[in-house]
Amino acid sequence: MTPSLRPPVPRAPRLPAYALFAAYLAAAGLPIYIHAPKFYVDEYGVSLALLGTVLFGLRLIDVVQDPFLAWIAARTRAWRAATVLLAGALMAAAMLGLFALAPPVAPIWWFALMLTVVFSGFSYLTICFYSQGVASAAAGGGHLRLARWRETGALLGICAASVAPMVLGGFTGFALAFAVLGVTALWAMRAEWRGAAIPIEGFGPVLRDGVSRRLLLIALVNAAPVAVSSTLFLFFVESRLAAPGWEGPLLLLFFLSAALAAPLWSRAAERWGSRHVLLGAMILAIAAFGWAATLGAGDARAFAAVCALSGAAVGADMTLLPAIFARRMAQISPGASEGFGLWSFVSKLTLALAALLLLPALEAGGFIPGAANDASALRLLTALYCVVPCVLKLVAIALLAGTPLPGEGEAAADRAHLAPDMQN
Questions:
Q1: In 3-state terms, the chain is what percent helix, strand and coil (to 5)?
Q2: C-alpha Rg value of the chain to the nearest Å
Q3: According to DSSP H, which parts of 168-273 are helical?
């Protein structure tokens, strides 16, 4: 490394700014998979199978794009604030194009184009944000403390984005609110990018490390149940529970439960270790989805309890796994962007696979959104929404049980950092 590229002494993170920026990013992630397919089905009559194929095709772009964006992030670190601003502006503009503008071309092509820009901006910002978090966590507070603020902010962002179309009177209001949130978050984080120095190490250190590869695999399998349930949630509530109008409140309950539980899971991990806490959360998720499989028309109130339990379990997934991976990156490739390029790709791949496999399967099984479906189509919907996540969680449990987690012996160090903050 040349003297001009020596990293400065890292500064302690401004945790509220990290939480707000995480909320902004999260609003452009999972909620898009919840809202966009149903919006384009209802407004423009695009078929479920075609939407699933397009979503998967966009994720194939990420096979090349996310690693490439990580490479760009590493080589443009001297202009980090400017590149982050550009990516944020493009993402907000594409969100307006996706939901607030009538497609000037065939709806499916406009859907693909706008989502490409949204996902590209999301990927670049996520890579920069998480790699910066590694250096900031080392400067003060520890990885679990930063993760607690960051992932709680992300979950609150998902909560807001999930119900925003209902609260704001439609998807135009959602897109405008997203743009306002983006301006606010970019302003709050403006000072955090200064002095960010990301070493150029490539993907070798991550891919050669057995623990990192295992963590990426766990992230892929463990995120799949959330991808499945997110893709099918609106259809399950509307058709299986026969509860149209409950979608917004139930989504809010799910993600609010996750946000409220996230700090509790983090503190529990500091005391008992990340492995034990994650395993407990996975078992809770299986119990919740198993209960959902027994529900039918008129069971919206019981399903609210399922949403609360499964949401609480998701809070552990979203808080602890990123913190574990960040800690490993700090050990083998401090501050590098490339590892988080792989993490971003894995996180989004699950959503793409869910869309590719589930939406066409529903259509092939005779399921019709918004219509009266026969018992066979509803059984298929229930199996995909409830049983598939349980199987995937069992696989994730087996993988986690056999993986040495980095930093389990460092809980005491994190507690030393956290002691002054325990009253917050």
A1: 80, 0, 20
A2: 21
A3: 171-188, 204-207, 210-235, 247-272
Alpha carbon distance 359, 355 (integer Å): 6
**DSSP one-letter code for 6:** P
Q: Count of CB atoms within 10 A of residue 238's CB?
A: 17
Contact between 365 and 376 (Cβ < 8 Å)? yes
pLDDT tens per residue, range 336-384: 556 776 777 777 777 777 777 887 888 888 888 777 788 888 899 999 9
Burial class of residue 176 in the structure, from the number of CB atoms within 10 Å of its CB (0-12 exposed, 13-18 middle, 19+ buried) = middle
Q: Are 100 and 176 in contact (CB under 8 A)?
A: yes
Asked if residues 129 and 121 have their Cβ atoms less than 8 Å apart, the reply is no
H-state helical runs in 333-366: 338-364
Model-level pTM?
A: 0.69
Taking a C-beta distance cutoff of 8 angstroms, is the pair 312, 258 a contact? Answer: yes
- Using an 8 Å Cβ cutoff, are 40 and 51 in contact? yes
Q: Left if phi > 0, otherwise alpha if psi is -120 to 50, otherwise beta: which for 219? A: alpha
Burial 263-299 (b: 16+ CB within 10 A, else e): bebbbbbbeebbbebbbebbebbbbbbebbeebeeeb
The whole-angstrom separation of Cα 29 and Cα 33 is: 7
